[in-house]
Amino acid sequence: MTDFYTTLLTLLKQDPRFTAQDGTFLRNAVYEAAMRLDANLLRLLLKNPETKARFFQEADGLLVFDKSGFAWAINNRQFLPDSYTRFKNKIGLAKEDDSLLSSSNRVCLVFPYKDCVLEGGQTKEDQKRSEIFYNELLAPDEIDRLLDPKAFTGARKYTADGETPVAGLSEDDNLIIKGNNLLGLYSILPRFEGRIRCIFIDPPYFFLATKPSDTFSYNSNFKLSTWLVFLRNRLQAAHRLLAPDGILYMSISDEGAHYLKVMTDEIFSMENFIADVTWESRKSVSSDGLFSQNSNHILVYAKDVNRIDKSRFRLALDPESFRYDDGDGKGRYRLEPFDAPNVRPNLTYPIVNPNTGVEYLPPAGRCWRTERQTYERLLAEGRIRFGADGTSRPQLKTWYSEAKSQGKGKAGSTIWHDVQQSILWQELDANTNATKDQMELFGSSVFTNPKPEDLIRRALELSTQEGDWVLDFFMGSATTQAAALKMNRHFIGFEQMDYIHTVSIPRLVKAMRGEQTGISKDVQWKGGGSFVYCELARLNQRFADAIQAAKSNDALAALYGEMRKSGFISCRIDPSALKVAADDFAALSLKDQKRFLMEILDKNLLYVNLCDLDDAEFGLSEADKAFTRSFYRMNS
Question: How sure is the predictor about 544, in pLDDT bands with cuts at 50, 70 and 90?
Answer without folding.
Answer: confident
